[in-house]
From TrEMBL:
It comes from the Bacteria. It comes from Lentihominibacter faecis. Keywords: Coiled coil. Residues 52-114 form a coiled coil. Pfam families: FTCD_C. The keyword Signal does not apply. This is Cyclodeaminase/cyclohydrolase family protein. InterPro entries: Cyclodeamin/CycHdrlase, Formintransfe-cycloase-like_sf.
Amino acid sequence: MIYTEKSCKKFIEAAASKEPVPGGGSVAALAGALGTSLGHMVGALTVGKKKYADVEDEMMELMKEGRQLQRELLDLVQADIDMFEPLSQLYSLKPETDEEIAEKERLMEEALENASAVPLQIMEKCGRAIELSVAFAKRGSRIAVSDAGSSAILCKAALQAASLNVYINTRMMQNRARAEELNEICAIRMMKYTSLADEVFECVSNQLKKGND
């Protein structure tokens, strides 16, 4: 089942149910895709306007990259679901022999790392989308500046949600050195991009409160 082909209502109902998927990682990816769409809209409202002719080429490039990020994040909605399935099956296994226990542990370690990889990718894509929002906020159409700020803060929320889905998997990994490597990647992305998103939000918020054009 491809969850991105469901209606918004059906997706939300599925996420709200007791079923294991879609979970936090998939919802984070979808939120990130929504955030990138708002950035793209800023570009769409900027291109073709005489007032912004000097930044049109830049906006076109930003929109192209933003659209690609949106597609990738939508793919990651399903990827997170697909990666959780083998992990879910392993949780229900009840090994009896030493060999079966060892095999389950091996498969669990592999599944946990795979399940951590997807939210890390979500964080990477959302981080880049936040970087794009900086340019959209600074040089995009003033009538859509609120959407540039919304893009940044939605992608920040998606980034934070994805980070929790890294940590919930790495905490159960037996290879603690590898788990800490993944946690460090996660922490670096959090530190870099959440502060940048906050800067965009504050900048846009201040502009709107002052009523500056």
